Amino acid sequence: MFGYGTVPANGRVSLPEEIRHATGIEPGDLVTFRVTRDRVIEIRTHRLPTLAEAIERYPIVGPLDAAADREAWQDVAAAELFRRIDVESEDQALAAFPTDHGKTIEE
Predict the structure, then answer these.
(1) Nearest Cα to 58, choosing from 74, 45, 42, 41?
(2) Which of 27, 82, 90, 103 is deepest in the core (most CB within 10 A)?
(3) How does pLDDT run across 58-105, given as a tens digit for each residue?
(4) Domains in the chain and their CATH numbers?
(5) Helix, strand or coil for residue 45?
């Protein structure tokens, strides 16, 4: 499958409808971009788990203490995301996800 688009002054590119349908990309999906070699960009989608999938993946054992357990859950989720987007540190991950306002998440 092949699609094309143009890059406007603001740098945003829309994925062609055929590409979105063929890959199952939907509004709100997380996508990552990586330059793999000169002028070649790899785009990957990362579907967020459903509540049922999250509960199965991150089982809750024993009484729930959200305040005490939150940091451990976040560490596990961050490690999984880093592995999925192929980065090794929080700094690399933050640099990979600018906000709509042209600032990184950490700002």
Answers:
(1) 74
(2) 82
(3) 777 778 777 777 777 778 877 777 777 777 666 776 666 554 444 444
(4) 1-48 (2.10.260.10), 49-107 (no CATH)
(5) strand
CA distance 34 to 55: 30
Q: What is the Cα–Cα distance from 107 to 104, expressed in whole angstroms?
A: 6
> Number of H helices and number of E strands within the chain?
4, 2
24-47 per-residue burial string, b: 16 or more CB within 10 A, e: under 16: eeeeeeeebeeeeeeeeeeeeeee
pTM of the model: 0.47
Tokens of 45: 């989608």
